[in-house]
Design a protein that fits this description.
Elements: E1 25-26, E2 29-30, E3 33-37, H1 47-51, E4 56-58, E5 65-67, H2 75-84, E6 90-94, H3 98-107
Antiparallel strand pairs: 1-2, 3-6, 4-5
């Protein structure tokens, strides 16, 4: 029996009929919300990855935090990571919003932290 794991992202988190048992089960409890890092404002401080090391990772190219597992840590640990974020870039969102948020983020021209902006050339010093 082959089960497509992407089904977990297509199931509606809210149902008028009550829980069906097919909702994503995360952290040992039925969780209605997912965690999202707005990488466009993340400063790469790494607080969240130290608090919730099973949920957050620092993306190696951009140097910003990213969620790698929704079920990596308990809701209380994730909330602690949210509370320690100095720029408030980590949010609880509905599972249905994740695809749209990811698409919006991919459309942005996010620069790697600590590097000069792309497209600008360094001026050469004048010769005397």
């Amino acid at each position: 029996m082959n089960i497509d794991p992407s089904v977990a992202f297509k199931v509606q988190a809210h149902s008028d009929e009550g829980p069906s048992g097919k909702e994503p089960r995360l952290g040992g409890q039925l969780r209605e919300k997912a965690v999202w890092v707005d990488e466009s404002i993340c400063i790469g401080c790494r607080y969240c990855s130290h608090v919730g090391s099973n949920t957050f990772v620092i993306e190696p190219i951009l140097g910003r935090s990213r969620v790698i597992r929704q079920d990596g840590d308990s809701a209380s640990i994730i909330q602690e990571a949210i509370d320690t974020c100095p720029v408030d870039c980590i949010h609880w969102v509905r599972f249905e919003e994740l695809d749209d948020l990811r698409t919006q983020l991919e459309e942005m021209d996010i620069q790697p932290l600590g590097l000069p902006p792309r497209g600008h050339k360094r001026l050469k010093p004048r010769k005397n």
